[in-house]
Amino acid sequence: MLERQHYRKVCCIYQERYVSLDEWIIKMLFCGRLLGEEIDDEEAVNDYDCNASEIYRESETELYVCRWSKYRHVLCFYEQKLYYRDFMPNGIYENILTETDAVSLARELLTAQCAKTVADISYLRIMPEYMSIQPYGAKAEIRSGGEITEGAILDALDRFSQGSIRRMELKWLQEEVVLINVDDKCACFWFHDQKYTTCKLLYNAEVYCTVDSKYVTYSPFLLGKLADYEIFHSPRLLVMKLCPLLFQFGEGNLIETKVNGNYVWSQNVYLYGKYDAYLVDKMKFGDYPPDKIITDFNKRRKFIIPKFPAFMEVAKENEEKQKIVIKPTTKDQLQMILQMYLQGSVKYLHLCWDIKQDDTLFQTHLVLLHENEMYALYYLNDQKMAAYCLIGSLDEYLTPEGQSPILELCGVPIHLYSIHHDIIRIRFFLSLLLDSIENPEQILNKVGEFTDGTRIYKQFMTYDELYHKLMEIR
Prior knowledge:
Elements: E1 4-6, H1 15-18, H2 23-29, E2 52-58, E3 63-69, E4 74-80, E5 85-93, H3 99-114, E6 130-135, E7 141-144, H4 150-161, E8 165-171, E9 175-182, E10 185-192, E11 197-201, H5 205-210, E12 218-221, E13 224-227, H6 235-242, E14 258-259, E15 262-263, E16 265-267, H7 274-285, H8 290-293, H9 296-299, E17 311-316, E18 322-325, H10 331-342, E19 346-357, E20 360-371, E21 374-381, E22 386-390, H11 394-397, E23 406-409, E24 412-415, H12 424-435, H13 441-444, E25 450-452, H14 463-471
Antiparallel strand pairs: 1-2, 2-3, 3-4, 4-5, 6-7, 6-8, 8-9, 9-10, 10-11, 11-16, 12-13, 14-15, 17-18, 17-19, 19-20, 20-21, 21-22, 22-25, 23-24
Helix pairs in contact: 4-6
């Protein structure tokens, strides 16, 4: 097994000459070391090119290399061929600032890639009660009770490490571990339903421990954002880091964020509304269907609203519309009105925010409609002149255009597929939008959840026409 850091100029070798090269020529080309020869970690190699450093490692059949550019701060992960290199999936890692970080990441990637399997459940002490595996493009595979064996868990972790599983969930009485692999990014979450706590597996503990929070970069993940030190780009590496921590799960206690003196988990700290903030975290990152989160009890929970609207307009059944400016003294009234809508006693609710982005001030709106046990949710952005309507039935939405009936709800034309007959999906996505009202694009752009609110078959409306119809409701 060869692991080596060296600097070199690019050399081209023709195949017919390569096989006849003397041993000393091969040594010269590879900085004096034959492929497969062991090197001490501390051994230094002369700076030969000053542009990039490389580390190689062999599996039984292939040769892999990580190349780091100290000027571009990028590490690239390849499979080495005779004349060229193939990028590995998710093989580009940016913001690798130091050589120490590059060597550490390269060794982790090469170890994970060259291992025959990275899954190891010998650390597991308590078997889960429920397991769900979601392959790409297929229904979830669900096991419970005696159907869950060590072999089944090992196979699931192995499949996840190979990139064939989108989501994996292990559930104990009070705890859940969820692994997600989407859009070339992976993450692992631990949820505790009694302690209202979310922990995230650390990809880069050094950044988590040493970099000031104001300098941490965040990237989109599912319906929220994660710190870059919580995002993996290799499912093999994620599984390799998770398996030694399996002993922490199943006893119902809070897991330790440190193991053997090293941080392995980041833990969310909720400053207020702990249970309600915890629910929003599960909505954002757990990839649960709405009916798994929005129980009868959770429907009545308070909403997390980091930025309160400037005002709201409310119309109850058989009453005139009323405008209420949101002040510290009326924030509780907003929570009460939202609950009244969910219970069916408010027919119209308009929430309006003043948003400032790049020195531009504009308004965004949430509009909730209710009539005859039918509900609808709209989001409007005045700057982009864009309107979104939450889909109520995906099956109806997928029918050919023109075959979904057009109804009127509170005087507004709307397709049948945007009508909701229960409040579960509205409560779910309303929570997410209220939590992310300044940057809701990840939620609005999720496939199969929202549609263009102005797109009414053969009755195309402009944004202004829809806006006025929604604002003029009495």
